[in-house]
Specification:
By secondary structure, the protein is of the alpha+beta class. The chain has four helices and 17 strands.
Length: about 270
């Protein structure tokens, strides 16, 4: 979309209801500020999103991505937004394999066929200081009621396995755990239960956002945690409030596969 003075073009996308505003800065002109992020985030007076992603060019990657949460804080990773933007770049360039860079590092994306897009979210971070946590504790049984598991996926995660994820008061518990002192950078919070072999139901609270219909990095963290706990294998189907996503923890990283949607293009009047 062409830039006009005083007008900021944007795209609205979602992956399984996890929704994003995407702004293109690949021409090298920086347009996004903290105040613009917070204004666009307002679902009543702005556009609304779970995360805002900025596309730019750095090095030899097809695109570099910078992520903001709806409260204006930054996020090191956002799996569903990465998949959505990867699909956009594939459609734009005709490529079926891409290299993307984020604060998480270099990520690979590919066309998985049947309208699905896969992204390798990299290896999970499984030491207390890389999650990160405030102190050295057992990552597979944190000293928090419910003995959740800690996982880093470029951002911190706290995963509870419960009898019924749908019975959890997600708003109350999520807000409480997000700010737990064990997580110095706050945390994403997941509640999951086993449906069947390699099949989970999961609900998520995202730090800086709140309840979301889906979260890619949370899905990866939950799949990794489920395997560590002996509940599933390394390939897991996860049922989210927004739909189904498939996670495959391979030797080269955690691959996430699911649908994407480019909902509309718009103009934000500065």
């Amino acid at each position: 979309m062409t830039q006009t003075a005083g007008i900021l073009p944007f795209m609205k996308m979602h992956g399984l209801g996890n929704d994003f505003v995407v702004i293109d800065e690949r021409d090298g002109v920086q347009r996004v500020t903290d105040s613009i992020v917070c204004a666009i985030a307002d679902r009543h007076r702005g556009v609304g999103f779970d995360q805002l992603a900025v596309m730019s060019l750095q090095g030899n990657a097809d695109v570099h991505l910078t992520f903001y949460n709806s409260d204006g804080s930054t996020a090191g990773a956002c799996g569903n937004a990465t998949r959505c933007i990867a699909r956009f770049i594939m459609d734009e360039t005709g490529k079926s394999d891409l290299t993307l860079t984020t604060d998480r590092g270099t990520l690979l994306a590919r066309d998985a066929g049947n309208g699905l897009t896969s992204v390798n979210m990299g290896h999970p971070q499984l030491t207390w200081d890389t999650v990160p946590l405030a102190q050295d504790v057992d990552l597979d049984a944190l000293p928090i009621s419910g003995a959740p598991l800690a996982t880093g996926m470029g951002n911190p995660h706290c995963t509870f396995f419960v009898d019924d994820a749908d019975a959890v008061d997600l708003e109350a518990r999520g807000a409480e755990i997000e700010h737990h002192p064990l997580y110095p950078k706050r945390t994403n919070v997941q509640f999951a239960h086993v449906i069947g072999p390699d099949h989970l139901r999961m609900r998520v609270w995202e730090r800086g956002v709140g309840v979301t219909l889906a979260s890619g990095s949370s899905s990866c963290a939950t799949a990794v945690a489920a395997h560590r706990k002996g509940l599933t294998g390394r390939r897991v189907q996860i049922e989210l409030d927004g739909g189904t996503i498939n996670i495959d923890w391979r030797d080269d990283g955690v691959w996430m596969t699911g649908p994407t949607a480019h909902v509309f293009d718009g103009l934000w009047y500065l």
